[in-house]
Amino acid sequence: MPDPVAAPQSPGSNRSADFCHWLGLLVIAQLVLWTVLPWLFARSLPLDVVSDGLAWGHEWQWGYYKHPPLPSWTVEVFFDVLGDIGPFLLSQLCIAATYIFVFELGRDILGGSRAAVGTLLLAGVYYFSIPTPEFNHNVAQMPVWAAACLCYFRAWQSGRIRWWLALGAGAGVGLLTKYSTAVLLFVLLVHFVRVRGARQALASVGAWLAVATCLMIVSMHVLWLLENGFPTLRYAAARAGTASALRARLDAPLKFFVSQAVDIAPAFLLAWVAGLRPAKSAGDGKLDFLLWMTLGPPVVTVVASLVTGMGLRDMWGAPMWNLAGLAIVASAAESWKSLAPKRLGAGIVALFGTGLSAYVLANVLVPRMEHRPSRIQWPDRALAQTFGAVWRQHVHTPLRIVAADGWLGGLVAMRAAPRPSVWTDADSRKAPWVTPDEVRHYGALVLWRIRPGSTEPTVLTGLRGVKILGRESFAWPDTPGSLPLEIGYGILPPSNR
Known about the structure:
Layout: H1 13-41, H2 47-57, H3 70-82, H4 85-110, H5 112-120, H6 137-158, H7 161-177, H8 181-196, H9 198-202, H10 205-228, H11 231-240, H12 246-273, H13 286-308, H14 324-330, H15 341-370, H16 380-394, E1 401-404, H17 406-415, E2 421-424, H18 436-442, E3 444-449, E4 467-474, E5 485-492
Parallel strand pairs: 1-2, 1-3
Antiparallel strand pairs: 3-5, 4-5
Helix pairs in contact: 1-4, 1-5, 1-15, 2-3, 2-17, 3-4, 4-5, 4-6, 5-14, 6-7, 6-8, 7-10, 8-13, 12-13, 12-14, 12-15, 13-14, 16-17
């Protein structure tokens, strides 16, 4: 397969093998340490795993009110097969796959040695460390974006149909993962038209096959959207927020820009410590491609926010910086010869260790010191045992439906056997798998958290016929001295009771 430019030769085969060996060790460390350490400290699973993963994935729908279905399906399978460690392992498999796809793309463009170094620099990108134990739609996007860039590059360069088909499959999987994949696809399209010209791009059989493949993969989800009135798009618009005043409209893009700069700054620092310096000019097309794919998505996102007033979330940047390390290496030019492997290796170890330490500090040690339990320290088993007993005492039939917010209901449902459905906020628009007929036939356990000065919980709004039974207090497992968790509970009895 021809490359846009001849891949530069590494300083020596031994050096290239060393960097590839280091990358292999990084991938193994990522899989083992970032899976096992969070799992050992977790009393309950992270927020998004429970509320947007297991509470939804257990129902096997073609869509959910917040997001497309694929990550929820995947985490459900890993939890069913492996238990609590499954979602943690799934997250790290996504990160490991991202490393591999990035390396493969870098090897096509830069050669093995530089590709390995460019991939190693990702150890300095925030999204490859502290957020990864919480599997969610952002983490799930990361390998899909990397794979799509790889397939597009090979399709563009070789023209082979198999790579166009692979790109279409990646695009379809990406859209089933999160709609923001459309940002990447727009950037790919603009790049293809830019380098080929509009007429040749439109005449590309491979590109149209990619589009057809993508549409085929997302077709069932599109039908679900049509049948349900596009709830995911309504949710995205409401969650992002809007701004009309000029100052407010500038605020969100500025905050997003600053947060992304902070999140990737350690990668640039690592490159600088290792001796890599940017060149004044690239001199060929490799840097242009990498910069286009690295900077294009965040630029499009910021411009869209400026034009529409749409708010931005920092974590939306998670899949956007996969190729940042390759771009840094490509821009290094002659300073590549001055690369100091020992300083690079020491920097990677320091950043990796810092990330692990920061995770433990933020999720375990600080909550203990401040008596403010983190999301992975909730007494989920005690909740399920207590309220399962309440249900059996009052209804004498298996618990089929838990009406609560996605987090609380998801915790109880996750630990119950058999697992009931979560009726999110007792709102069938959020949980269409719970029908009025099922509620009348099976009834529902109704739960809500009680806080000082709290008003009527959302789950009780508009819900008629609930027998409010009282409240229960639960001690926090790992944060002694914290105020107990107060949960109100009631029962919506079956109609035949």
